[in-house]
Each structure stands twice: as C-alpha cells, then as structure tokens.
C-alpha cells in the first residue's frame, strides 16, 4: 500500500509539473536578426504642395536575446542589439507560439531621394510568431514624426519584418 501511495504521489507531481506554462521557454534564447521594410513620410504643415515619400529602411542586422523573467508567468525580457546602432530593451508576453512585445521607441535613420536625411525616434509595435522552434518572425509597425530643414513629416510603416534565427 505504501508503494502505491508513493507511486501515486510521484505521478501527481509529474502531472503538476507538466501543467506549467510552456510558452516563454519556446522563445528563450539568443538569435541573429535582420530587419527590413519601408515607411511612408507624409509632409505636414507644408506651404506648397505637401510631399510624400516611400522610403526603404536601411537593413539592420544584430543580436536578439530573449530571457525568461522567472516570475512564473509567460513574460520575457527582449534585448535587441543592432550592429553599429542602439540597444533596445523591452518586455513581451508569450502565448502558444506567438510573442507580443510591449511598444518601444527605436532610433531610425531614413534617407529620401531629395537628399533629405532624418534620424528620429519612432514608436514600434511588434508581434511575432515562432516557426520550427528556431525561426522568429516579428511583424513591426513604425509610427512617429520627423523634422529636418524646417520640414515636418508623419512617419508610418506597417510592412516591416524582422527575421531572427536562433543561434
């Protein structure tokens, strides 16, 4: 009888352990990433005909680290380190094979055909999905405003993708 109760206790412990959330560990790890896409610049407060530009973002490469916060929830810390650029830190929530990043600010350099160069902080909204347990695709939306040479632009892009491969 004692052996049966020990066996039942072990089975219960295994069952309880298997009920823990498995979403955050799916994403945890180090990745290499590349980001590409484009944004639209709409001139605001123009005296003449307002200009609109579609601008390709410079391809960014770097390292991405996703760490479990260890709080028993599916919250993770995301650190993006762009080569030759900035480091962005944000939190995210994982559910099944999807990740939802808390909105963050990113410093982005934009070039137009009119010799116009803009370097501004843009708000970024990002969600992603894991494929084959080692490829993370983030879909990003950039929003904000930019100013240069007394010209102001509204910036928007919703076709920005980050492909990250687990190292």
Polypeptide structure, described:
- The protein is mostly beta strands and 167 residues long.
- The chain has a single domain (22-166), classed as Lipocalin (Beta Barrel).
- It is 13% helix and 63% strand.
- The protein is built from 2 helices and 10 strands.
- It has helices spanning 2-18, 23-27; strands at 29-36, 38-44, 52-56, 60-68, 75-82, 87-95, 98-111, 117-131, 135-148, 151-166.
- The protein has an 8-stranded antiparallel beta barrel with strand order 1-4-5-6-7-8-9-10.
Mean pLDDT: 82
Arrangement of strands in the largest sheet: 1-4-5-6-7-8-9-10
Please bin the fraction of helical residues: 10-25%
Number of strands: 10
State the CATH topology: Lipocalin
- Please indicate the percent range of residues in DSSP E strands (runs of 2 or more): over 45%
Q: Give the count of helical stretches.
A: 2
Low-confidence stretches: 5-21
Main sheet makeup:
8 strands, antiparallel, barrel
Amino- and carboxy-terminal Cα gap: 50 Å
Shape-level CATH architecture: Beta Barrel
Structural class: mainly beta
- Spatial extent as radius of gyration: 22 Å
Number of domains: 1
CATH class group: Mainly Beta
Instruction: Assign an overall shape.
Output: elongated
Would you list the SSEs in sequence order as H and E?
Answer: HHEEEEEEEEEE
Summarize the structure.
The protein is mainly beta and 167 residues long. Helices cover 13% and strands 63% of the residues. The termini are far apart.
Give me some keywords for this one:
167 residues; mainly beta; Lipocalin; eight-stranded antiparallel beta barrel; elongated
